[in-house]
Specification:
Elements: H1 2-23, E1 33-39, H2 57-64, E2 67-73, H3 79-88, E3 108-109, H4 117-123, E4 127-130, E5 144-145, E6 165-171, H5 201-230, E7 237-243, H6 258-261, E8 262-268, E9 283-285, E10 289-290, H7 292-301, E11 327-334, E12 337-345, E13 349-354, H8 367-370, H9 374-384, H10 390-393, E14 402-406, H11 424-441, H12 451-490
Parallel strand pairs: 1-6, 1-7, 2-9, 2-10, 3-5, 4-6
Antiparallel strand pairs: 2-8, 7-8, 11-12, 12-13, 13-14
Helix pairs in contact: 3-7, 9-12
């Protein structure tokens, strides 16, 4: 009798369970959306990276709920070549697209079989967007001709919960000209400038304005996140916040020191996504990472394997690639300036090879930069007055052919050890690392430019000089006046 009742109730339970299962809707997990928030000209000058005196609560909140990466480096210290590499997950000098400001007719076509990241997402069933709402500029700035279409849409209204998307919001801030944060101004007196600049009000004021524009950029990040939330898109969107290269200052932008190539990277995944376990809240990642790894990893978020031709690596997830032991960066033509420098960086050492070394850091400034960078004029005027320290004097002296820095003890890369006999073996190791990489990727930047390309860049330089000439004179006069006023006040 007891067995009969037991079987009865087991049967009832099974029937109820089956009924429940029939009533439950079948659930299909949609691939996550991927959103790049791409800032311009920004180093790790954010509160969450420990930079003092700057208010960046929205980016800080992303870091607190995601993973903050500390050793991320772009493949170039300027927008166009860096973004070109991001677009393909490849070094820009491996696809012959390594200069900035190519004339359209002289741009190289992408090699056969290589596709930009938006097309790879599109073929995975994603809608692609280069957002012009929420302060987005719609900028791509790629220096190649592509055989495929660009992004599908430009506005949030074109995105929905029904289809996954890959979107980019490019924020102009913190590119020059800087904008002022009138609500939360940064006091120049509290700003500590790097020791390779004169500690003068001109430099501190320029840095203070840069930090203020970073604060305004952070407010824009907050507005983007609110937009996602209001549209019901936030819970299925992986946020990738980073910048295209380092800060827009002398000895930073255009140059291969960490101030020009080291960037912030924060990735945050909502709790409902499986990627959350690889991006735990408040985590910090100290691995060496190249910016082209962001491209490969973003594809992994969508379930795409890294393309065979990609040089970027998947940095996390269920099937990450091997960790890097070194990262590489390149500086070639930036408008009328031709640097032709290469760098390899490990956790401890930085090696830079300057194939053109008859110019100084300051002489490497374009006319546009001379018209917009007060520190450029401060360095020249202080040099005239013999007021530069040896470290500052290096910025107006010809570049060395080789540079070697021990980053564990020389964070600002000011003590060049390339000529130290005791470090000959270390120098040779770095030389070999760089040479092997150049051979492996086929470094097109080592080949001579065509005559047509050289003439095009020369013409660009003449036009830029004519366009910016009066602005350069005006800014120099303003800097001289400030220096004179300071001297009068001191005496």
């Amino acid at each position: 009798m007891q067995n009969r009742y037991r079987l009865f109730w087991i049967g009832i339970g099974i029937t109820a369970l089956l009924a429940c299962r029939q009533q439950e809707p079948e659930t299909v997990t949609q691939p996550p959306n991927v959103l790049w928030i791409l800032a311009e000209d920004l180093s790790q000058d954010l509160a969450c990276y420990g930079y003092p005196g700057v208010l960046t609560p929205h980016v800080d909140a992303l870091a607190a709920d995601g993973m903050r990466f500390t050793r991320v480096f772009t493949t170039a210290p300027a927008c166009t070549p860096s973004r070109t590499a991001l677009a393909c997950g490849m070094y820009q000098n491996s696809i012959n697209a390594h200069h900035m400001r190519y004339p359209d007719e002289l741009m190289t076509a992408l090699p056969d079989g290589i596709l930009p990241i938006n097309e790879l997402f599109r073929r995975q069933g994603y809608i692609t967007a280069n957002i012009k709402d929420s302060h987005g500029t719609g900028k791509t700035d790629w220096s190649f001709r592509s055989p495929v279409a660009g992004f599908d849409v430009q506005h949030w209204d074109s995105l929905s919960q029904d289809k996954p998307f890959f979107a980019v919001v490019n924020l102009r801030l913190t590119h020059r000209p800087f904008e002022q944060d009138t609500l939360h101004p940064v006091d120049p007196a509290t700003v500590k400038v790097p020791p390779y600049y004169p500690d003068h009000a001109v430099a501190r004021e320029d840095f203070a304005q840069y930090l203020e524009t970073a604060q305004l950029m952070d407010q824009q990040v907050g507005e983007i996140l609110t937009e996602l939330e209001n549209r019901g898109l936030r819970d299925n969107t992986i946020i990738v916040f980073f910048s295209d290269h380092g800060r827009p200052m002398s000895r930073a932008k255009y140059f291969l020191y960490d101030s020009g190539i080291q960037i912030p990277l924060i990735i945050q995944a909502p709790e409902k996504l499986s990627w959350r376990k690889y991006l735990p809240a408040g985590s910090v990642n100290d691995d060496l990472i190249s910016a082209i790894d962001i491209s490969a990893t973003s594809l992994a978020f969508a379930g795409l394997d890294r393309q065979e031709w990609m040089q970027g690596r998947v940095i996390l997830g269920p099937h990450p690639d091997d960790k890097r032991t070194a990262v590489f960066s390149v500086a070639d033509r930036f408008g009328e300036t031709h640097l032709k420098s290469r760098a390899v960086r490990t956790a401890q050492w930085k090696y830079i090879r300057n194939y053109i070394h008859n110019i100084s850091v300051n002489e490497g400034a374009t006319a546009y930069r001379k018209a917009n960078h007060p520190i450029y004029h401060l360095l020249n005027i202080y040099n005239e007055k013999s007021l530069l320290t040896p470290e500052q004097k290096a910025l107006v002296m010809p570049l060395p052919e080789e540079e070697l820095y021990n980053l564990e003890v020389d964070l600002y890369e000011m003590n060049n050890l390339a000529g130290d006999p005791s470090l000959k073996k270390q120098l040779q190791e770095m030389q070999t690392l760089l040479a092997n990489w150049q051979n492996e990727i086929h470094d097109y930047g080592m080949e001579p430019d065509s005559e047509a390309l050289q003439k095009a860049f020369e013409e660009y330089g003449r036009e830029s000089a004519a366009k910016n000439g009066k602005k350069i004179e005006k800014l120099e006069a303003e800097v001289r006046k400030k220096i004179e006023e300071t001297e009068i006040a001191v005496h």
